[in-house]
Inverse folding.
C-alpha cells in the first residue's frame, strides 16, 4: 500500500470538496481530493444553477470567478405566479442584493481546472474508500486508484464532502438524522429554447408547481411538480411542453412559452434531511454529506459552499494554533443550515399542490402569496433568505486578501 501524508484528506470533488481544497491552498494548507467518479462525469452532472451573492463573492476571492462574471446571468429579482397573474420581486430594491444564474457543472469545471492548473491533487475514479482513526491525531483515508493500486492518505483532518450517498456521515458515532419527505417530486429538463422571461418564474397552479429557469440566453431549464414515484420515461417531450404551457404559458402579460429540443430530463425526489453533529474527532462533514434541502429556492449548492468556507477557516486557524472555531464548526454550520431548511420547506409547501390538499390549504397558500406581494415586510424576508443569509463569520476572515492568481 502506497502511503502519502498531507494536512487535509478531502473525500468528494463536488462544490464542497473543491471549494474547500481551494480555500485551504490559498491559505497555505495542503490537501488531496479523492473522487469516485470520472472528471467527465463530475463536469457533466446537471444540477443546481442559482448562486447567492455570498457564493459568487467566495469564488471571486479564490480567483475562480472570471468565466462566472463573463457568462453568469445577474438577476435583480424573480417572478411569482399564482391565480393566473405574475408578480415581480426586486431583490436589489428590497435588500440591496442579487443572485446569479450559472450552472453547478460550470462551477465544478472551473474549480477542477484551476485546482489542477495550480498544482493541486485530485484523484478521480477511486474505489473502496474507507476512513480510519478519526479519534486520534493522525486519521487516514484508504482507497484504490483506477488501476487497482492501494493507497493510504495520512492527514491531520478529513473533509467528508462526499454528498448524500457518501460514506463519511456513517463514520460519526451517534449521529442523528432529522428528516421530512414530500409527497411529490420534480421533473427537470434542460432544453435548447429561448427564455420565458429575463428572470425566473415560480408558478403555483391548480395542476401543480412549475419553475422556469435558465442556463444561458439560449438554454432553458424547466421543472414540473410530478407524483413522487414518477419516472422521466413516463413523460414524452410533447407531454412535457404541453404541461409547461398549461402551468407557465397562460400569462398574457409576458411572452409566450416557446418549445425547444430537450437535451436532458430527470426526476429529483424532494427531501429535507439534516444529520448532526457534523463533526467527530478529526472528521468534518460539509454539504450534502450532512444535509439536503428540497430544491425550491436553490439552497443546496449554496449551503455546500458555505460549509466549505467555514470549515476551511476553522482548519486554517487550528493549524495556526487556535482551534476555537474548529470546535464550534458543527454548531455554527447547523445554525445556518437550519435557517435554509426552514426557507426551503416554507417555499416548497407554499408553492406545491399537496396530494391531500383541501380548499382551506389552497386558500392559505394564496393568501400568503398575496400578503407577500402586498407588503414590504414579508417581501424583504423572502428576498433576504432567497439571496442568502450571512455566513457565521465575515468573508474577510474566510479569505483575508483577494486572490492574485
Ligand atoms: P455533491 O455535489 O454530491 O458532491 C459529492 C461528491 O462526492 C460527488 O462528486 C460524488 O461522486 C463523490 N463521492 C461520493 N461518495 C464518494 C466516495 N465514497 N469516495 C469518493 N467520492 C465520493 N440544488 C439546488 O440548489 N438547485 C437545484 O436545482 C438542484 N438540483 C439537484 C438535482 C439533483 C439530481 C441532485 C442530486 C441535487 C440537486 N441539487 C440542487 C442539490 C445540489 O446539487 C447539491 O446540494 C450540491 O451538489 C451539494 O454539493 P456537495 O459538494 O455537498 O455534494
Ligand atoms: C434553479 C433551481 C431551483 O431549484 C431554483 O429554485 C432556482 C433555480 C436552477 O436550476 O437554475
Amino acid at each position: 500500500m502506497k502511503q502519502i501524508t498531507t494536512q487535509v484528506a478531502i473525500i468528494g470533488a463536488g462544490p464542497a470538496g473543491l471549494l474547500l481544497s481551494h480555500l485551504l491552498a490559498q491559505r497555505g494548507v495542503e490537501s488531496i481530493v479523492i473522487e469516485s467518479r470520472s472528471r467527465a462525469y463530475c463536469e457533466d452532472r446537471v444540477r443546481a444553477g442559482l448562486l447567492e451573492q455570498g457564493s459568487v463573492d467566495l469564488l471571486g476571492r479564490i480567483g475562480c470567478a472570471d468565466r462566472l462574471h463573463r457568462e453568469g446571468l445577474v438577476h435583480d429579482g424573480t417572478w411569482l405566479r399564482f391565480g393566473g397573474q405574475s408578480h415581480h420581486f426586486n431583490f436589489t430594491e428590497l435588500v440591496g442584493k442579487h443572485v446569479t444564474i450559472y450552472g453547478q457543472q460550470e462551477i465544478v469545471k472551473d474549480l477542477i481546472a484551476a485546482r489542477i492548473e495550480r498544482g493541486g491533487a485530485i484523484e478521480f475514479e477511486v474505489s473502496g474508500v474507507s476512513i480510519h482513526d478519526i479519534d486520534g491525531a493522525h486519521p487516514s483515508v484508504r482507497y484504490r486508484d483506477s488501476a487497482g493500486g492501494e493507497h493510504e492518505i495520512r492527514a491531520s483532518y478529513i473533509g467528508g464532502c462526499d454528498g448524500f450517498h457518501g460514506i463519511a456521515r456513517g463514520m460519526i458515532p451517534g449521529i442523528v438524522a432529522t428528516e421530512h419527505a414530500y409527497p411529490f417530486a420534480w421533473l427537470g429538463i434542460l432544453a435548447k429554447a429561448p427564455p420565458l422571461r429575463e428572470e425566473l418564474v415560480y408558478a403555483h397552479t391548480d395542476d401543480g408547481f412549475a419553475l422556469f429557469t435558465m442556463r444561458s440566453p439560449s438554454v432553458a431549464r424547466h421543472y414540473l411538480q410530478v407524483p413522487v414515484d414518477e419516472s422521466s420515461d413516463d413523460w414524452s417531450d410533447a407531454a412535457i411542453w404541453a404541461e409547461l404551457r398549461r402551468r407557465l404559458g397562460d400569462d398574457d402579460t409576458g411572452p409566450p412559452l416557446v418549445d425547444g429540443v430537450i437535451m436532458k430530463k430527470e426526476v429529483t425526489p424532494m427531501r429535507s434531511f439534516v444529520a448532526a453533529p457534523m463533526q467527530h474527532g478529526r472528521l468534518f462533514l460539509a454539504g450534502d454529506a450532512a444535509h439536503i434541502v428540497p430544491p425550491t429556492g436553490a439552497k443546496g449548492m449554496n449551503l455546500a459552499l458555505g460549509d466549505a468556507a467555514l470549515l476551511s477557516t476553522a482548519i486554517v486557524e487550528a493549524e495556526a494554533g487556535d482551534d476555537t472555531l474548529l470546535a464550534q464548526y458543527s454548531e455554527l454550520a447547523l445554525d445556518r443550515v437550519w435557517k435554509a431548511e426552514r426557507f426551503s420547506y416554507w417555499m416548497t409547501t407554499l408553492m406545491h399542490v399537496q396530494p391531500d390538499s383541501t380548499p382551506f390549504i389552497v386558500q392559505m397558500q394564496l393568501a400568503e402569496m398575496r400578503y407577500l406581494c402586498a407588503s414590504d415586510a414579508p417581501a424583504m424576508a423572502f428576498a433576504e433568505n432567497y439571496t442568502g443569509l450571512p455566513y457565521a463569520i465575515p468573508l474577510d476572515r474566510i479569505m483575508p486578501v483577494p486572490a492574485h492568481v
Notes: Residues 11-17, 34-37, 42, 47-48, 104, 126, 129, 161-163, 166-167, 266, 268, 287-288, 295, 298-301, 304 surround flavin-adenine dinucleotide (ligand 1) (CB under 6 Å).
